[in-house]
């Protein structure tokens, strides 16, 4: 077993770290306070090729792998959780379904602008009454001649307010068992009847755009149907499996940033005439934090490697997402504790990291859903009854 990164992967990691620390980190506090989406930062990321890392060059990508992409998410998340979340969503959710399931024409028309950084994409799955139970989707799409007419609403959709296209899931009929057939559609955001509201006031990741989508008789050409209409459910499950790796990477990045801040502070802060890093109580906290971050990182990279090798990674992706997200919350909480009263102040940044980290336990499938996915992969319970999405 070789745990070393390739030369290309290490060079990419170093490049993204330099960019993130110089361009993104200095804006993190302002982004959190204002809630403004860092559109200029994304333009620069597009120019660097970061939005197309895991896609082939023929579609405007960089021809990299999932490991490289995971490293990039970690470094961006280490600098700013908000920017990291929008970056992960743009690639894993906005562009990846087009790459994996789109026709050649769809890839050229919709994927190339996303992978080359000319535009942002978004993925509209969650609804007010269909979160963890994605099979309960109520948005409907009806074929009318050469067009599908879509009606419904989506909530908590990342990047939609700044996207040119949104991939929307909708019910198109019933199967032989009477279950909903869920299909995916490519919907340009300027389509008549498509309304996007970005009015959420969030606890964390405040600079990441989160929107409500309302579709009222939205018409799209039938060629905007993405992938196999009978396998839309399986398609977005595969999309979410990959997305969980990116959320886990983001959690590792946020946790690493909190740990770095706590370690540095512990060496500077003096109590009883010595740095608090000399006290065993603080040392044990830091040791546990460092250990858990590294364990999470290793799980993330294993899941990413499995995906790159074309192997099954559903269970490992859930392992990574579950452990990394809960780890990040623990680490950020301990970072505040090490900072004491200063950690509760916005000036030191660790309170922002805790607020950002909490979403990692909710988005892309809650911790509870990850445990269900893992149990299902272990053969526990009836597969047909397991809820699989968040």
UniProtKB/TrEMBL annotation:
<dbReference type="Pfam" id="PF00441">
    <property type="entry name" value="Acyl-CoA_dh_1"/>
</dbReference>
<dbReference type="InterPro" id="IPR009075">
    <property type="entry name" value="AcylCo_DH/oxidase_C"/>
</dbReference>
<dbReference type="Pfam" id="PF02770">
    <property type="entry name" value="Acyl-CoA_dh_M"/>
</dbReference>
<dbReference type="InterPro" id="IPR009100">
    <property type="entry name" value="AcylCoA_DH/oxidase_NM_dom_sf"/>
</dbReference>
<feature type="domain" description="Acyl-CoA oxidase/dehydrogenase middle">
    <location>
        <begin position="122"/>
        <end position="218"/>
    </location>
</feature>
<dbReference type="InterPro" id="IPR006089">
    <property type="entry name" value="Acyl-CoA_DH_CS"/>
</dbReference>
<dbReference type="GO" id="GO:0050660">
    <property type="term" value="F:flavin adenine dinucleotide binding"/>
</dbReference>
<comment type="similarity">
    <text>Belongs to the acyl-CoA dehydrogenase family.</text>
</comment>
<dbReference type="GO" id="GO:0003995">
    <property type="term" value="F:acyl-CoA dehydrogenase activity"/>
</dbReference>
<feature type="domain" description="Acyl-CoA dehydrogenase/oxidase C-terminal">
    <location>
        <begin position="231"/>
        <end position="378"/>
    </location>
</feature>
<dbReference type="InterPro" id="IPR046373">
    <property type="entry name" value="Acyl-CoA_Oxase/DH_mid-dom_sf"/>
</dbReference>
<dbReference type="Pfam" id="PF02771">
    <property type="entry name" value="Acyl-CoA_dh_N"/>
</dbReference>
<keyword id="KW-0285">Flavoprotein</keyword>
<keyword id="KW-0560">Oxidoreductase</keyword>
<dbReference type="InterPro" id="IPR037069">
    <property type="entry name" value="AcylCoA_DH/ox_N_sf"/>
</dbReference>
<protein>
    <recommendedName>
        <fullName>Acyl-CoA dehydrogenase</fullName>
    </recommendedName>
</protein>
<dbReference type="InterPro" id="IPR036250">
    <property type="entry name" value="AcylCo_DH-like_C"/>
</dbReference>
<dbReference type="InterPro" id="IPR013786">
    <property type="entry name" value="AcylCoA_DH/ox_N"/>
</dbReference>
<feature type="domain" description="Acyl-CoA dehydrogenase/oxidase N-terminal">
    <location>
        <begin position="6"/>
        <end position="118"/>
    </location>
</feature>
<dbReference type="InterPro" id="IPR006091">
    <property type="entry name" value="Acyl-CoA_Oxase/DH_mid-dom"/>
</dbReference>
<keyword id="KW-0274">FAD</keyword>
């Amino acid at each position: 077993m070789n745990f070393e990164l390739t030369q290309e992967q290490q060079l990419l990691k170093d490049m993204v770290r330099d960019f993130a620390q110089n361009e993104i980190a200095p804006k993190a506090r302002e982004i959190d306070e204002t809630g403004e989406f860092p559109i200029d930062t994304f333009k620069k990321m597009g120019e660097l090729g970061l939005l197309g890392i895991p896609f082939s060059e023929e579609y405007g990508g960089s021809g990299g792998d999932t490991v490289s992409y995971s490293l990039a998410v970690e470094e961006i998340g280490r600098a700013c959780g908000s920017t990291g979340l929008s970056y992960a969503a743009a690639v894993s959710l906005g562009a990846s379904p087009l790459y994996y399931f789109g026709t050649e024409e769809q890839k050229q028309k919709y994927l190339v602008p996303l992978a080359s950084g000319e535009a942002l994409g978004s993925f509209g799955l969650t609804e007010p009454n269909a979160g963890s139970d994605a099979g309960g989707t109520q948005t409907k799409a009806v074929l009318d001649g050469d067009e599908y007419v879509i009606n419904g609403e989506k909530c908590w959709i990342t990047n939609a307010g700044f996207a040119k296209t949104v991939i929307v899931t909708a019910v198109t009929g019933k199967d032989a068992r009477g279950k909903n057939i869920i299909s995916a559609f490519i919907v340009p955001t300027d389509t008549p009847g498509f309304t996007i509201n970005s009015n959420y006031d969030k606890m964390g990741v405040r600079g990441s755009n989160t929107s409500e989508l309302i579709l009222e008789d939205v018409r799209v050409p039938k060629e905007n149907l993405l992938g196999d209409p009978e396998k839309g459910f399986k398609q977005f499950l595969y999309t979410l499996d990959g997305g969980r790796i990116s959320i886990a990477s983001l959690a590792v990045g946020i946790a690493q940033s909190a740990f770095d801040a706590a370690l540095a502070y512990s060496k500077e802060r003096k109590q009883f005439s010595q740095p608090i890093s000399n006290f065993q109580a603080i040392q044990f906290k830091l040791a546990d934090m460092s250990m858990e971050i590294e364990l999470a990182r290793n799980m993330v990279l294993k899941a990413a490697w499995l995906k790159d090798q074309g192997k099954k990674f559903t269970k490992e992706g859930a392992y990574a997402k579950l452990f990394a997200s809960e780890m990040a919350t623990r680490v950020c909480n301990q970072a505040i504790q090490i900072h004491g009263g200063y950690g509760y102040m916005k000036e030191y940044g660790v309170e922002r990291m805790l607020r950002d980290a909490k979403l990692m336990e909710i988005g892309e499938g809650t911790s509870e859903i990850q445990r269900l996915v893992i149990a299902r992969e272990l053969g526990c319970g009836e597969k047909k009854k397991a809820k699989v999405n968040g």
